[in-house]
Specification:
alpha+beta, 5-stranded parallel beta sheet, 24% strand
Length: 644
Amino acid sequence: MNKEKILVVDDDSDARKGIVKSLKADGYDIHDAENGEQALEMIKVDSYDLVLTDLKMSEIDGVGVLEEVKKKDPSCPVIIMTSYGSIETDLQAKKTGVSSFFTKPVNMDRLRLKIKKILEDRKLEAKIIEPDREITDSEITREVSSKLMLGTLLGIIVKLTCDILNADGGTLLLIEDDSLVMKAATENFKDEIWRVKIKPGKGVIGRVAEKGKPALVKDGLNDEPCFSEFKVPQKIGSGISVPLFEGNKPIGVLNLSRREGKPEFNKEDFFAAETFNAHIVFSLKNAIAYTELMKAKLYIDNIIGSMLDTLIVTDSKAVITTLNKATLELLGYKEEEVIGKHVGMLFEEEEFIFRKDEFDRLIKEGISRNYDVTYKTKFGERIPATLSASAMRDKEGKVIGVVCVVRDMREIRELQLQIFQQERLASVGELAAGLAHEVGNPLQTILGNAELILMNNKFEEARAIKKAVLYCKRIIENLLDFSRQKEINFINDDINDLIEKTLSLYGKQLEIQKIKIVKHYADLPTLLLSSSHMEQVFLNLITNAQKAMPEGGTLTISTRVKRSASNAQKGDFVEISFKDTGMGITKKNLNVIFEPFFTTYKRGTGLGLSVSYGIVKQHNGQIFALSEGKEKGSEFVIRLPVGK
C-alpha cells in the first residue's frame, strides 16, 4: 500500500523537524521545505496528498503556498499553522480553500487526528469520482450535497458531470463582479484555474451567461472566441454550455467538451445536462451558504480569541461548551480538560451562581451583572473576578445556554487598596501634624530643665530624662516629615546618581553582610525633587532590605521610564525598584506596612516607611510594596512623575 505523501513547510527549523519526526512515526511519506520559495519549487515537480504550512514566512507566506497548491490541485488539502493570524489572512486563506487552522505551539495529538481524518475523507472523495463507476443523476445530488466546502465541491461537480455525459473535459465558471471566473476544471483545463475571466456576451460561454439559455455547439470550437482564453492540449469537436441559476438570478456556467473523433454531443446529451442542472444549482447554493457560514464563524472565532476578558459559554445545564484563549491561559487548563465539564469546576466551591437553583434563576431572568466570584486555577491559585452572564435563546425563545464574561479584578483590587491606604494615611498625617505641635512645646520645657539639672548636679535620673526627651523629639521630627510640614527644597537631579551616593555611604555594610547588589539602571531624565529627602527614602529601603536578609542575599535595584497604562494623559514616570530575596511580607502586613508605628523589628520605631511614604507623596509620586508571602522576598517600587 502506498504511503500518503505530506509536505511540511516551516522556516523555523526546530519546529519543522519536530513535526516531520512525529508524522514519520505515523507511517506517512514526509517531505519538508524550509521556506515558501522552496515549497513552490517542490509543488511544481511533485504532487502531495496533504500540505502542512506555517503562515508567517518571509517573501512567500503560507497563503501564497496555499494558492499555488490549489492552482495545481484544488482537491489537495492544506493545513495552516499560525501564531500571527488576523481576520484578513484567515479569510483570504479560507476563500482559497484551507482545510484547517492550528495555533502554534501545535498540539501534535490533535494535528495527527486532523490529518488522519482529512486523508480518509480524501480517499472517500476519490472513490466517488472514479471514472469507471456508473453514476446516475439522482446520485449526483446525494454525493455533491454531502460535500459542503466550496473548493472541493466544484471539482466534484465538474468530474461527475463529465462522467455522466462521457465528456473529455469540463469547466465551471461563477459570476463575480460582472465577470465569469473559472473556479474548477478537469485536468486538461486545470492550469487555467483562477486566471480565466470572461465578460457576459463574449463567445459561447458569455452568451449563455447573458441570455440564460444553454448552447449546443458542433463541428469544432476552435474558432469560437471564448475558447481562445483556454490553452487546450487537444482539439475540441463538440461542446455544451449550461447556465446555472439561483431562482431567476444567473450564477454561472457549466461547460462540457468532447475531442474531435469522438461522437458529438446530441439532443439526448443536451437534455440530460439540463435535467441535472437543478441538482447542481441546489448543491452549489448549499455550499455557498456553508462557505459564508464558515466565514462568519471564523470572524466570530477571531473576535472571541482576541478578547482580553475571559469568556465561558455553557449549555442550559451549566456544562461548558466553549472557552476563549484568555480563559485557558489564565486558569492553566487545556481545552479538552474542561469542555463537557460543569462550569463550577473553574470557581471556588462556595460560589453559588452556578448551583442549580441560582442557575435556574439566571436562565429565567436572562441576565446577571457584576457578580463577585473567585476563579480557581488548575494549580490552586485564587483570583478575584467579576462575572456578567446572559442567557442565549434560539429563534423560538428557548434558552439554549449561558454566555459568561469574567473579568480578572486583581489589578483593580490592588488599586482600590492603594487608594484606601493613601486616604487612611492622609488622615493619619493630619493627626500626626497636630500631635507634634501639641507635644513639642512641653517636651522642649522638660528638655531645658533637664539640661539645667545636669549642669548643676549631674543626676543620673536627669540623663535618663534627657535621653527619653531626645527620643521623643526624633519621633516628632519624623512625624512632621510624614505629615509634610517640614520644608522641602526642589532642584533638578538624577535618580541614578542619588542611588549611587546612598550606596557609597551604606554599601560597605551590605558587603560585610554578604548581600550582593545587582543594578539595572536605565537612561533617565532629570527630575525636580528634594535630593536629601529622596536619599533618605533610598537609605530607608536599603536598610530594610538588609534587615530582611540577615543571612545574606541579593538586592536588585532597577530604574526605568514607563508610561501610565491607565491614563495616557498622565504621561511618563520614572519607576525605581528595590527587590530583595529576604524573608518577604505576609499579605496581612502588606495592607498596613506604610502606617505610622507599624514595625516587625523589636528596635524599630515604625516610622521609616511612613516617612518615606510622606516624602514620595509630596513629590506627587507613589510608593508601594509587593511580595508573594513569607520567605519569598519583597519589592518596594517608587514612581515619580516626569516634568512635575
